[in-house]
């Protein structure tokens, strides 16, 4: 809800100021995220050792690389945004350009907010993982969200940019780099989770036959409960996505800032099956 543009509450002449404010706020959030990760790294070295220290360092290093990639992405996006305004406003002022293209401006603001929010959430999830109070899955989901937000920011910038723009090419390259670094966070998180789980594997060698049978039955009950819960959560996720798409709307922005409904997907042409060969 916070990421949705508050266009009804904001005068059009204020949109330009808000773009600059949000881009600056996103940069500040990323800088703060980098500092927090460095602090977590120092804390991890003081409070953990062995396998846990190795896992924490690998995860935090991958998070640092991702933050650096996002920082470069936001910087390049800011440069491209200035280029778009300068080449498209003509005799109009910057504020008038943003007001004339208010829907595009709101999309840019929303995308910038999403990137900054994703970076903040990633750091908070990493902090909880290092302190052993969070879940590794949170880091994976945050990485996916950052990749999606990056694609949104590139798409919002690409609408108004010249195809031959060097800043656009740099932005697309930065986007690929962010996706690669996000994938590294996912990989390091999964491998670290496997290492920790292997280390904490229970030893059943000292259990009696009755004790083993009891543990086996209890585990079977948990498996059934988790499977049922997983099915329910998948249904809930599907409904949430439907509501998200309904609120976001299925519109494609045109070059002049207007919108048009997205074309319906074509159905595949049904081909006749080949005739059987006669013997």
Structure description:
This protein has helices spanning 15-47, 50-88, 94-100, 102-130, 136-158, 166-199, 209-248; strands at 251-253, 259-261. The protein is mostly helical. It has a domain at 14-197: I/LWEQ domain (Up-down Bundle), CATH 1.20.1410. Strands 1-2 form a two-stranded antiparallel sheet. It is elongated and about 85 Å long. It starts with 14 loop residues before the first helix and ends in an 18-residue tail after the last strand. The relative contact order is 0.11. Residues 251-262 have low confidence and may be disordered.
Write the layout of secondary structure elements.
Layout (H helix, E strand, L loop, with lengths): L14 H33 L2 H39 L5 H7 L1 H29 L5 H23 L7 H34 L9 H40 L2 E3 L5 E3 L18
Helix pairs in contact: 1-2, 1-4, 2-4, 2-5, 2-6, 4-5, 5-6
Strand content: under 5%
Q: What is the β-strand count?
A: 2
| Strand-pairing-aware structural class | mainly alpha
Main sheet record:
2 strands, antiparallel
Q: Write down the CATH class of the domain at 14-197.
A: Mainly Alpha
Radius of gyration: 25 Å
Q: Report strand order across the widest sheet.
A: 1-2
Q: What fraction, in percent, of the residue positions are helical?
A: over 70%
N-to-C terminal Cα separation, in Å? 67 Å
- C-alpha geometry: elongated
CATH architecture label of the domain at 14-197 = Up-down Bundle
- Overall mean pLDDT: 79
Order of helices and strands: HHHHHHHEE
| CATH fold description of the domain at 14-197 | I/LWEQ domain
Number of H- or I-type helical stretches = 7
Pfam family, one: I_LWEQ
Region (Disordered): 251-279
GO cellular component, one term: cortical actin cytoskeleton
GO molecular function: actin filament binding; clathrin adaptor activity; clathrin light chain binding; phosphatidylinositol-3,4-bisphosphate binding; phosphatidylinositol-3,5-bisphosphate binding
